[in-house]
Amino acid sequence: MADDLVSSLHISASALRSQGQRMRLISENLANAESTSELPGGDPYKRRVLTFQNVLDRELNIKRVQVRDIVDDNTAFPLEYNPSHPSADENGYVKMPNVNSLVEMMDMREANRSYEANISAIQIARSMLARSLEILR
Fold it and tell me: What is the C-alpha to C-alpha distance for residues 27 and 31, in angstroms, rounded to an integer?
């Protein structure tokens, strides 16, 4: 039983690390939501997203969560008409980052809830381990 509880601690800890990386990436996207190119007609900041995967930890014989990859989101850049902007092309359009703040906030909320769920799982497992030790005394 104690091995199962320790395994659940390892699994939840790996999920916490992965969700922490996800929150940092979302924060980066939000911070650059208005970052345009320094060159006229150039590409602005590209939204970045990550994917998760399960990885077998052979030593503990458990599947851990980890970030598989961080990639650029290749959706089109929205165009904004602003001929006075330094990044405007010859037609007066500025390519804006493909970051939707509402989507990023929803992703942040989901990551936060997952983070909280894993914290709760760790607290419960620690409590169960402590109770098991009390019983053994």
Answer: 6
Q: b/e map of 98-124 (b: 16 or more CB within 10 Å)?
A: bbbeeebeebbeebeebbeebeebbee
pTM for the whole structure = 0.85
25 is a domain residue: yes
- As a whole number, the mean pLDDT across the chain is 93
Please work out, in degrees rounded to the nearest 5, the angle formed at the alpha carbon of residue 122 by the alpha carbons of 12 and 11.
20
Write b or e for each residue in 12-32: b if 16 or more Cβ atoms lie within 10 A of its Cβ, otherwise e: bebbbebbebbbebbeebbeb
Structural domain that includes position 130: 2-34+44-77+100-136
